[in-house]
Amino acid sequence: MPIDVTLEFADSVLTLRGARPPQACNPERYHQLERGQGQFARSLRFSSAVSAEGITAEFNDGVLLVTVPKSTSGRRLIDVS
Predict the structure, then answer these.
(1) Three-class SS string for the chain?
(2) Are strands 38-45 and 13-20 parallel, antiparallel or unpaired?
(3) Where are the domains of the chain?
(4) Which pTM does this prediction carry?
(5) pLDDT tens column, 21-74
(6) How far, in Å, CA of 32 to CA of 13, rounded?
């Protein structure tokens, strides 16, 4: 089943948007379905600086792995004399 997911990073917020297709199931056999369907969105705000160019995403066996590296720019060692 193809996945319909998009990731967007702006202003220290990573937003994941997607849609879960309806499942083919027999409702007479279930009292309650735990897995939702339809559109969804989740947002994560980062308090540390993030390297937007280094963000990667990989989808394997139903698991989405998103790697968000810290930014090294803006951080420097200041010599105190």
Answers:
(1) CCCCEEEEEECCEEEEEEEECCCCCCHHHCCCCCCCCEEEEEEEECCCCECHHHCEEEEECCEEEEECCECCCCCCCCCCC
(2) antiparallel
(3) 5-67
(4) 0.69
(5) 776 666 666 666 556 678 889 999 998 888 888 899 988 887 889 999 988 775
(6) 34
What distances in angstroms separate CA 69 from CA 4, 20, 55, 78, one per listed residue? 24, 28, 7, 23
Amino acid at 12: S
Two structure tokens written together for 35:
């897995």
C-alpha angle 74-46-58 in degrees, rounded to nearest 5: 105
CATH number at 5-67: 2.60.40.790
Q: Name the one residue in this structure whose structure tokens are 């009292």.
A: 31
User: How many residues in total does the chain contain?
Assistant: 81
